């Protein structure tokens, strides 16, 4: 290390040490504030206690944020032409005199750290990346942007992409990391794009779509904190493993109150985990199901053609076709949801029945009060109740769908063809069975819209709760103004924390339990996989249409997924959405991309693969074996990455067999999706499960079969070939697809 570098490091170390000192002071101070509030104990009035809890919640959240930024607290420095200097980090810090010590990476003044170039330096002369381990500064990399103003020594140390390449070359841990220190200019533009409207981010594999979407969530929460903390941010990923893969990123950026979910989890109380056959998924995902569900609901409102007799102890009541029709058309005309329209239907029939009963009782001149009393008596008669329930039953979405899927007759009435009926037909759920699939969830959601709440009582309670909430907010506003906290805390959030006797719920937690929650912003990742029905469920959750949609049309694997963004979004937005493209592949080395781009031509001749940012010098290879079950294990064993991750991607029909073979021969190998697959040194999975993930090394098994196994075979193979950050191999038994002839043949 040269003397000047050592001097630089020592200077930076001093500054960084002071930042950590300040961080420690703030942690101690906030902890003290929290303890002070908690020490007041559960005494005082209900009001005092609830105020105490509100402050405790706020201090606890602030403390969590201060602890979240321990690693690489400060990672950058900007030197400006006017000699000012800013340090950039994970959060903003000031000293007690309000002097800025550290700038939050999301603040507008930090933007040149990501955007300045020698051609457009934005007033910056030097951008410095600081590398730290723990609290120790281990190195610096400089980008010198004002080339004219450089000394000879500075020119010699010009090192543009060192920080990025160092980050990309690191071994994978099974969890996505944040990239605040090395966000690239094209990514930064997307991250800081305005909140309103729908932004579609299209980009090939490894271009950072996922990581950019997550940083955008952190940026939006910082910039529009009040609006978004109240309404919440929802991030939708393709499956639970993927959600697990990305879940660390936002907390590492100090943001914990974001809901990460999959489409299969969007309906509270249901986990869509069962696998559908591709055929069933296509039927369930089709927009035609809107009509099918509507007809299924209408069929449950169908009244009998023949008159109905209701036998009571003293007499028998009769309902004829005309009465049914009149009651039904009144209910339908009310335009209420099924469960609410039931009240209209029932009222009409009960009035008719009450008049009949009055005649039977010889009391045809009843006054209003007597009439109402008799009607109530009849309503509670078991035969009457049973008859009304049969005619127009209360229905939950689950009951409606179970009723539909378990009866070909009902499916036919709802408009499904015989082939579609065969694809969807099911046995009723057994106790404890995971009956629902991810594709069912949007259908449950659709049904919930048409069926409405189960009863008026529930609705009344909800209205009452809303009124109470508004009262609490009004009170909270007064308290905040009196205590001078109005500028740092929102009255609505404060009010929510005021409910001392209830458990404090974050916005994300409240939103997760409420099907009708309207989010402030929704981010959809791997968005190409969503079916038409899934889009409806997602759009329903974002009435303001403030969304970020990221994906790659070329990687669509689901047969119900998208072939074009325009077609998917048109029903909701016409052409009111903006598109940004990412064009650089940060994951897959050039050697591997060369192979993958040949496969991309099979997906679509006009599609262009993203440019790889780096080369590794390692050639991808192919090996022919005779017996996969016997030969796969040893090949996998040879490829294991010390301290890193290897995945074996297999045709989905072979997952169980080959997974067992590898597990028997390679210690620590696991099969299938799930959290274990992320942590294991070796995992075996299908393309669908590997989507969105990345590994140090990838072995693709039987590519020919992957190509043939689904209608989106070429996309699947493209996805499989682009998961590796370093090494790629292919193992096959029969022949190698023509598009893979670029691979180096390697003998066993
Ligand atoms: N600016 C950056 N600095 C450091 N690493 C980056 C940067 N941009 C992307 N990466 C890394 O590149 C890899 C790919 O990113 P990501 O998974 O977000 O890509 P993607 O576009 O979602 O890929 P795919 O479509 O294949 O799922 C990740 O390891 C990510 O951390």
From TrEMBL:
PROSITE patterns: UVRD_HELICASE_ATP_BIND. GO terms for biological process: recombinational repair. Pfam families: UvrD_C_2 (PF13538). This is DNA helicase. GO terms for molecular function: 3'-5' DNA helicase activity; ATP binding; DNA binding; hydrolase activity. One of its GO terms (cellular component) is cytosol. SUPFAM superfamilies: P-loop containing nucleoside triphosphate hydrolases (SSF52540). It comes from Planotetraspora silvatica. Transmembrane segments: none annotated. InterPro entries: DNA_helicase_UvrD/REP, P-loop_NTPase, UvrD-like_ATP-bd, UvrD-like_helicase_C. It comes from the Bacteria. Residues 182-589 form the UvrD-like helicase ATP-binding domain. Keywords: ATP-binding, Helicase, Hydrolase, Nucleotide-binding. ATP binds at residues 203-210.
